[in-house]
């Protein structure tokens, strides 16, 4: 389903954001 795909993409982006903040030292 489309919703499932969007949810997966959203989770992936959340992880990317988390990695970016960690790399900045925050």
Automatic annotation (TrEMBL):
It comes from the Eukaryota. This is Uncharacterized protein. It comes from Nymphaea colorata.
């Amino acid at each position: 389903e489309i919703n499932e795909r969007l949810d997966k993409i959203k989770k992936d982006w959340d992880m990317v954001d988390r990695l970016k903040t960690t790399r900045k030292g925050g």
